[in-house]
């Protein structure tokens, strides 16, 4: 367990309080880079899950069973994130030296990881609900989605520990993590 979670020396912070140093949020730019990389990795997860779904359901047209596929992908992504977050980090988080922990700095339970997954949809649900009654072009939807993502990310600046608000609601936090060198 010594290499699983950050210590004040592993976090590289030289502050007076080692406990708070270990639980400092990584810089917003690094968290957003990790978020973007996670999206790229999720493309592969969605591709294989979609292939599995279409094979098992014998879907021949992409518009057939669209809502069932969306529900299936929601569940697959939930399993993916719940599994990896309860272990501490996804591949993208390992790359960017970020770990997710609870408020006390302990590993997430699967229940808390699932709650974080559900609350993380706050990145996307508000603009999706706002655009639902309108017939907008793909470009307009992209601008609204990217605008909301930027607003949601910048709102973390208002949190006392610079955490994203879905993390605050879920009782989790992102922290800097450096693997222990042997």
UniProtKB/TrEMBL annotation:
Pfam families: RDD (PF06271). Keywords: Cell membrane, Membrane, Transmembrane, Transmembrane helix. Its main location: membrane. Residues 26-171 form the RDD domain. The keyword Transmembrane applies. The chain crosses the membrane at residues 35-56, 68-86, 113-132, 138-155. It is a multi-pass membrane protein. One of its GO terms (cellular component) is plasma membrane. It is found in: Cell membrane. The keyword Cytoplasm does not apply. PANTHER family: PROLINE-RICH ANTIGEN HOMOLOG-RELATED, RDD DOMAIN-CONTAINING PROTEIN. This is Putative RDD family membrane protein YckC. It comes from Extensimonas vulgaris.
